[in-house]
Amino acid sequence: MDGFADWINGFIKTNFKRKFLLLIAVPFLLSSLFIIDFLLLPEHHQTESLRNTEWIFLPNHSIASKERSKHMGYNYTTENNYKFSTLRTKIESSYIEITSSPIFKTVKTVTVEGKEITIQSGLNGVLGVLMISGNLLLISGSYVLLKQDISQNARLNLSFLSLFLFAIWGYALVEYG
């Protein structure tokens, strides 16, 4: 473990700004590309048929409750592998109209028989919160670590805190995104 701490300490002491900016640029550019894809690029409209519907359960770990989990919504997969989720709204129709982003194929809207269904995936759900919080973490961490005159120990502590929060953010992105 001493070798890893020495490596981090060496990383911070020698040419820190350049290395840090290179490390921080990749996730920031990828999330910016995702946001641009979702919000600015022209969207695609297509009719899809639902291939798979799964229930979303929220586990209940309370000892007092006899109910083991609570039904929260539905995950849907279409024939062309578009995925989206709804919160307590079950889609009964097998054919739906979807609007998706061109690069990442993120579902933006779902319309069933002329009625728009509220979805909880893409930037409409947890992923939107994760994108905003991740970008704020990157920007604030970059500002503090690059612009402020702080001691090496404080910079090391902030680096480890940022890495820890970024690891939690990445786990939530993979698990819930």
What is the secondary structure topology, with strand pairs?
Elements: H1 2-13, H2 16-39, E1 44-59, E2 69-78, E3 83-86, E4 95-100, E5 107-112, E6 115-117, H3 126-147, H4 152-176
Antiparallel strand pairs: 1-2, 1-4, 2-3, 4-5, 5-6
Query: What is the averaged pLDDT score?
Result: 79
Q: What proportion of the residues form beta strands (DSSP E)?
A: 25-35%
| Strand order in the sheet with the most strands | 3-2-1-4-5-6
Order of helices and strands: HHEEEEEEHH
Principal-axes shape call: elongated
How far apart the termini lie comes to 32 Å
Helical fraction equals 40-55%
Low-pLDDT regions: none
Please give the largest β-sheet: 6 strands, antiparallel
Q: What would you say this structure looks like, in words?
A:
This protein has 177 residues and is of the alpha+beta class. The protein contains four helices and six strands, in the order ααββββββαα. It has helices at 2-13, 16-39, 126-147, 152-176; strands at 44-59, 69-78, 83-86, 95-100, 107-112, 115-117. The protein has a six-stranded antiparallel β-sheet, with no helix packed on it. β4 (95-100) and β5 form a beta hairpin. α3 (126-147) packs antiparallel against α4. The longest helix has 25 residues, at 152-176. The model has no long low-confidence stretch (mean pLDDT 79).
